[in-house]
Amino acid sequence: MSFNALFIAHAPDADKTIHRATIKTGMYKLITVCVRNQSEALEICDELVEQEQIDSILLCPGFTHQDVAEIVKATDNKVAVVVARGDGPSGRIVQSAFIRAGYISHGKK
Q: Are strands 20-24 and 28-35 parallel, antiparallel or unpaired?
């Protein structure tokens, strides 16, 4: 039996059916899926939490507090739901990278 984690990341050009990967060691399984939006994130949770016996869901910094709450509710509090967030300087670095990559327009959240 392994510890099973699901990492969900936002990408504007993602196709959730093909932009996914699984890494397995003997004791750890990490499933990564890129989604376009919150609706797709909820679909992925619905698809994988029980099927893959997920213990923890890790969300990219693009998920809002409301998004996190919706995922917790959708998973019936049966898995840990955490968000990868940094301190203030880290947040600014990520925002600059998102702007550079075209995820968001300059000046928009």
A: antiparallel
Query: For the chain, which residues make up each domain, given as ranges?
Result: 3-101
* Amino acid occupying residue 15: D
Q: Does domain 3-101 have CATH number 3.40.50?
A: yes
Q: Give the pLDDT band (50/70/90) at residue 108.
A: very low
Supply the pLDDT for residue 106.
58
- When pLDDT is averaged across residues 21-49 and rounded to a whole number, the result is 98
**pTM of structure:** 0.86
Phi, psi of 46, deg, nearest 5: -60, -40
What string of DSSP letters covers 28-50?
A: EEEEEEEESSHHHHHHHHHHHHH
> Residue 107: its pLDDT value, please?
52
